[in-house]
Design goal:
- The N and C termini lie far apart (58 Å).
- Strands 1-2-3-4 form a 4-stranded antiparallel β-sheet, covered by helices on one side.
- The chain is α+β, with helices and mostly antiparallel strands and 129 residues long.
- Helix content is 33%, strand content 16%.
- It has one domain.
Length: 129
Amino acid sequence: MEFKNLVEAAEKWCTGNPFDLIFAEEDDERRLDFYAEPGVSFYVLCPGDTDSFHVWSESEDCLPFLQLAQDYISSCGKKTLLEVLEKVFTSFRPLLGLPDIEDDSFEHYHNDMEGEPGPDQQQMGVSQQ
């Protein structure tokens, strides 16, 4: 994707949350820097020289919160900038003073595992005849 399109997508994303795009550079690396009060900052290296996105922060306080986003990026499949930014935003919610939101995919899985086995599921050690 063209870098200017990535910048436009990042600016649009910023309108729906506390982050501001404070710096965008394409010369040395395709880098987008973001900042939100109270001192939450991170940057995204966009694909070009690299195969995938990369997120990092120069703030020691922010780094531990980026692990979720880093794991997400390294998982299978290509990611879009907006998917990466949303995962970063979710990761930083506690630092921003926002309530945690439940991970719907885990909750859905957990709900599927609860309850009685269905008619097509056999209980261990009990044959249904």
